[in-house]
Amino acid sequence: MEDLKNTKIWKRNKNHNTIVKCNDVNFGEGFFTVIAGPCAIENSEMALKTAKEVEKLGASVFRSSLFKPRTSPYSFQGIGKEGVNILAEIRSQTNLLLESEVLSEEHLDILIDHIDIIRIGSRNMDNYELLKIVGKINKPVILKRGMSSTLKEFLFAAEYIIEAGNEQIILCERGIRSFDNYTRNTLDILAIPSLKELTHLPVIVDPSHSTGKRSLVPSASKAAIAAGADGLMIEVHPDPTKALSDGEQSIDFFTFEKLMKEIKKLLEIFDKSTIFKNELSN
Length: 282
Ligand code: PEP
Ligand code: MN
Prior knowledge:
This protein is of the alpha/beta class. Helix content is 32%, strand content 14%. α1 runs parallel beside α2, α4 packs across α5 (151-163) and α8 runs parallel beside α9. It starts with 19 loop residues before the first strand and ends in a 13-residue tail after the last helix. Phosphoenolpyruvate (PEP) is lined by residues 39, 65, 69, 101, 121-123, 144, 174, 206, 209.
């Protein structure tokens, strides 16, 4: 990691850890932030239903994907720019912040006025031109780790954004490819404390894409908290068996509620109890 020592993301080159603030939501030390929502927005009804439910249960940010990077060009690619009206509806009916993936500069132009947080997905972690573009925007960026990227490559990708002028970066561990394909990816649990040792940036975890299996999402979420994560990004769908993308790894409302209760208990142990926008009833 020698060559990272002169970078702006390097922990020791800053005397405190960065807290990324977005309205009244904070990512970083002392806070725990839950991002939840479907893999992709499918229509207005399911989006609003999911948004209201996850907000009630304590999420602060809504996954609002309109553009989906899919392995097959024949799979559902997201509803695209028509969906911005749905984002406006969610904004008017909830207090959730909205985050959404951009795959290109064109997507950024379409989404910029409708979202609070920009997401760069795993497939674009090393799209340096796109990183430089989001580096010029004054909005937080969730940068997901490339599925085959080392921590050093991940951190240098973040450096492209910070170097271009945007310090509001949230790193997201989302699992890496390994030899075992029982799970979709392998959650690199030690990436969490390792990144925190190396950089001052907040680190969140995506237990959905890292496992690919809804039965494993709660365990991955709890392990991430124990390892020191500053937040989670969880796929939640009103009826996962009917989801147009990633239904196998999406959890339903009931499971999300149960998980949020467990998360809350764990956060008390780790002294991060001031997390939720909406307190859970019990
Ligand atoms: C996503 O979060 O919607 C996604 C596609 O995940 P990843 O970029 O980590 O594969
Ligand atoms: Mn997904």
